[in-house]
Write a structure and sequence with these properties.
242 residues, alpha/beta, Rossmann fold, four-stranded antiparallel β-sheet, 10 strands, 33% helix
């Protein structure tokens, strides 16, 4: 499958660093979720974070998204130091800089597909008509424009994930985050989501994903970061599989 995503949404391929974590530690009471993580991701990279359940993968993703704050260390995304931002500033940062794809879609049940997608732009101040036009373009490019008026409850898992991807791309994010994006869909839909993420990265979208799926990591990522007990246990470059 080849996806015709508009090139206006693509971040230019340069050697600049989009994500930098330096000595990030996160404690939840007596539990240490992240233990001195340092990591850099450059523009145009696709990086997969892997490891056993409880190793800190999702906590790491939440740090990069500004959904959680480190106990110590610094998190810089697209030149913005997140640790010093207020909650309001972090919310605006997420809307403008980050696209997020969740395992269980996180769609609003009372809105049809088109409005679920358009809302992401409207929250940044984009006029409703303009937001709906771009939302329809994205749904069309993802092959589900005919489902634009359908509510999440009647969409298949693969369709819901495509709506979630369209929503994540609405504001042309500097960074696309994906948390187990194939974990709640069937095999065929999972293959399509992998193709889509690969297509996006190949036209320049910077991507950070968390996955248990070695096959997905090998197919969609150029680098795999292995985590164990809140630490980076190693990194490896991968030759992408077909």
């Amino acid at each position: 499958m080849t996806t015709e995503i508009d090139t206006d949404a693509v971040i230019d391929r340069t050697d600049r660093i989009v994500v930098r974590l330096d000595g990030v530690r996160k404690e939840f009471g007596e539990t240490t979720a992240l233990d001195g993580i340092s990591l850099e991701i450059r523009s145009g990279e696709a990086v997969a974070v892997m490891g056993p359940s409880g190793c800190g993968k999702s906590t790491l993703l939440n740090m990069v998204a500004g959904l959680d704050r480190p106990t110590s260390g610094s998190v810089v995304v697209h030149g913005d130091e997140l640790t010093g931002m207020s909650e309001k500033e972090l919310a605006l940062f997420r809307r403008r800089r980050i696209g997020m794809i969740f395992q269980f879609f996180n769609l609003l049940d009372d809105l049809p597909a088109l409005d679920n997608v358009a809302l992401a732009a409207q929250l940044t101040g984009t006029p409703a008509a303009q937001a709906r036009r771009r939302a329809l373009e994205l749904l069309d490019e993802l092959g589900i424009a005919d489902r634009r008026n359908a509510y999440p409850a009647v969409l298949s898992g693969g369709e819901r994930q495509r709506v979630a991807v369209a929503r994540a791309l609405m504001n042309r994010p500097a960074l696309l985050l994906a948390d187990e994006p194939t974990g709640a869909v069937d095999t065929r839909a999972g293959e399509q989501i992998m193709d889509l993420l690969l297509d996006l990265n190949q036209i320049g979208q910077t991507l950070l994903m968390v996955t248990h799926d070695e096959r997905m990591a090998a197919r969609c990522a150029g680098r795999i970061v292995d985590m164990v007990d809140g630490r980076v246990a190693g990194e490896r470059s991968v030759e992408r599989t077909a």
